[in-house]
Amino acid sequence: MSTQRTVLVTGGNRGIGRAIAEEFLAQGHRVAVTARSGEGPEGVLTVTADVTDAASLDAAFSEVEAQYGPVEVVVANAGITRDTLLLRMSEDDFTDVLDTNLTGAFRTVKRASKGMLKARFGRIILISSVVGLYGSAGQVNYSASKSALVGMARSLTRELGGRGITANVVAPGFIETDMTAALPEEQQKAYQEAIPAGRFATPVEVARVVTWLAGDDAGYISGAVIPVDGGLGMGH
């Protein structure tokens, strides 16, 4: 088992974020999640925060630090969608998605890096998406925000790599969540036919890649993009 760490997952009350928090907990780590509303899994410290508000994030980190010590592993997972075709997309549709998915990750990482630099250890994991590099009609805003995380991780690697801090991107494809379950059956089938693996991933398959990146075995991996997409986005 990897060394016990203090872990913070943003947007950890549902979906992939919740699965990531549960997996870190199962592996014996001290885990906190941020949520705008709702609770994280049992056994996890839930702190209320909105990644679009730096002051609320700062307060959340302070609460986690007071209870669990400095955050050693941060998973920037909080994200929103505002899907619509380009000509119908308002400027707010675009900037709101970037403010949460991209600038939100920046705010989270900036606050986390203070403790990491002091400790000369850190794991920064940014949750992107297959559409960040594959593209998706109706998601100009979302795919832009998710592909930008790659440049962020690589710049962080160059800036912080000498201090024992890694920064990596995990790019999930289609995952079995409430969101995909709500899709019409024909649409689900069409998506599955495009995926070489022929199925959607389970949230735990994403979570275990994240926990591995945070662990002792992945200390020499940084600036990487790891797809968990059944082969959907190959070649990117």
CATH topology: Rossmann fold
Strand residues, percent: 15-25%
Which sheet architecture does the biggest sheet show?
Answer: 7 strands, parallel
Low-confidence stretches: none
Specify the helix fraction band: 40-55%
Whole-number mean pLDDT: 96
* Count of discrete structural domains: 1
Helices and strands, in N-to-C order? EHEEHEHEHHEHHHE
What spatial form do the alpha-carbon principal axes imply?
globular
CATH superfamily: NAD(P)-binding Rossmann-like Domain
Tally of contiguous helical segments = 8
How many extended strands?
7
Structural class from helices and strands?
A: alpha/beta
Give the distance, in angstroms, between the N- and C-terminal Cα atoms: 32 Å
Task: Provide the CATH architecture.
Answer: 3-Layer(aba) Sandwich
Strand order of the largest sheet: 3-2-1-4-5-6-7
CATH class: Alpha Beta
**What gyration radius follows from the Cα positions, in whole Å?**
17 Å
Structural overview:
By secondary structure, the chain is an alpha/beta fold. It has one domain: Rossmann fold (3-Layer(aba) Sandwich). The protein has eight helices and seven strands. It has helices at residues 15-26, 54-68, 91-119, 131-134, 140-160, 178-181, 185-194, 203-214, and strands at residues 6-10, 30-35, 45-48, 73-76, 122-127, 165-172, 225-228. The protein has a seven-stranded parallel sheet with strand order 3-2-1-4-5-6-7, sandwiched between helices. Helix 1 (15-26) links the parallel strand 1 (6-10) and strand 2 (30-35). Helix 2 (54-68) runs parallel beside helix 3. The longest helix is centred in the middle third of the chain and has 29 residues, at 91-119. One of its GO terms (molecular function) is oxidoreductase activity. Residues 5-178 form the Ketoreductase domain. Pfam families: adh_short_C2 (PF13561). It comes from Microcella alkaliphila. This is 3-oxoacyl-[acyl-carrier-protein] reductase.
